[in-house]
Amino acid sequence: MSSKRPVTVIGLGPMGQAMVRTFLDAGHPVTVWNRTASRADALVERGAVRAASAAEALSANELVVLSLTDYNAMYEVLEPAAHALSGRVVVNLSSDTPEKTRAGARWIAEHGGIQLSGGVTVPPSGIGQPESSTFYSGPRDSFEKHRATLETLTRAEFRGEDPGLAALYYQLGMVMFWTSMLSYWQAIALGEVNGLTAADVLPHAAETMASMPNFLSFYAERIDAGEHGGDVDRLAMGMASVEHVLHTNVEAGVDTALPAAVVDLFRRGMDAGYEADSFSSLVKLMRRPAA
Ligand SMILES: NC(=O)c1ccc[n+]([C@@H]2O[C@H](COP(=O)([O-])OP(=O)(O)OC[C@H]3O[C@@H](n4cnc5c(N)ncnc54)[C@H](OP(=O)(O)O)[C@@H]3O)[C@@H](O)[C@H]2O)c1
């Protein structure tokens, strides 16, 4: 018998499978269930126990990890099994919006269970790696009770009791990740039509990205203090720069959706009267919906 706590994992996409393998390798008894049953086959060969239904999987263990596409999938899986939620701690690592996450936590509570929301910040290959981390939010005592088991997967960062916070932190990361990576694709496309390979662009791209933390901390302090003065940079200067970026992409004949969206935001800042202020004043536009 293993001395490690048993755990149920529901949802065996690439992420759920990596989690099951990591739990098994660390000696945790694991019960699994997946809509497409065959996705459990290799895990069962490795030592996992296949539950016949979602309800059986819930009943097997107090700690239940959900790794589904989103919260709609959670309702599809758990609604027919809701009677088995009572007394379960459901660690929901399915991505969705903070509001959907809060509603999910309320729904699980109505059925006598507890939801810990999670946001995994790494791809499946990062599961089981000490440098990886996952945000958690929800009842602190439930988190503390299961922290050691959850830390088998990644470092566990508790973000607060509001169940939406883990999803919020996850989305804060994703909004920066997707736009940063698109900016990299744009640089590669622009480089390629000018005869450069992605490998040629890489060192300059990496240096540019590595310079960002200095900008982040400099502007965070000023934004929290409500300071957007044009003493360091001026939006009008930035406007000229982002237009040069757009025109360089137009000249090269590559897609301009991304640089045009940037020009549009700067233009709206100019129209709002921020031309002599820092380009951080654009955050004031972003706080409200586009007119
Ligand atoms: N993969 C990543 O790099 C990564 C990184 C960070 C966070 N995440 C998050 O982790 C979660 C899981 O990731 P993944 O890559 O494993 O996702 P995935 O490939 O979308 O797998 C999702 C799982 O959800 C199940 N599912 C989807 N719709 C369902 C429905 N209507 N009813 C029942 N089951 C349903 C699938 O079952 P079937 O096998 O039957 O289709 C599968 O087990 C997602 O929320 C994702 O955003 C992923």
TrEMBL record:
Domain of life: Bacteria
Pfam families: NAD_binding_2, RedAm-like_C
Keyword set, alphabetical order: Oxidoreductase
GO MF terms, alphabetically ordered: NADP binding; oxidoreductase activity
Domain 6-phosphogluconate dehydrogenase NADP-binding per the UniProt entry, residue ranges: 7-155
This protein's record includes keyword Transcription regulation: no
Family annotation (InterPro entries): 6PGD_dom2, 6PGDH_NADP-bd, HIBADH-related, HIBADH-related_NP60_sf, NAD(P)-bd_dom_sf, RedAm-like_C
NADPH-dependent reductive aminase-like C-terminal domain ranges (all copies): 162-288
Family: Belongs to the HIBADH-related family.
The name this protein goes by in its record: 3-hydroxyisobutyrate dehydrogenase
